[in-house]
Design brief:
91 residues, mainly alpha
């Protein structure tokens, strides 16, 4: 579980750094980043790191749940970063 949290936080930091350099990632509350996070994180990195079986070993609903979770993660990250940007602009 600790690895999962660290991995998730690292992606959050990466998103915070990339979102200003690549504004496309911010569209639709971070939807492009969420999809990218699901594809790279779930579908590629977990297998490369030996943490999961290949993507074909999982049913389609598992992939869909992962995609939805990562899109929700990106939306929460984008919403938080927008709020921080707004607070910084006021200060």
């Amino acid at each position: 579980m600790v690895l999962h949290w660290i991995y998730g936080m690292a992606w959050g930091v990466l998103y915070a750094l990339l979102r200003r350099r690549a504004p496309l990632l911010r569209k639709a509350l971070g939807l492009p980043f969420g999809v990218l996070f699901a594809l790279v994180g779930d579908e590629i990195m977990n297998q490369v790191m030996g943490l999961t079986a290949p993507p074909k070993a999982w049913p389609i609903d598992a992939h869909f749940r992962g995609l939805v979770g990562h899109v929700a993660y990106a939306a929460a990250a984008e919403g938080t970063l927008r709020a921080l940007d707004a607070a910084e602009a006021i200060a």
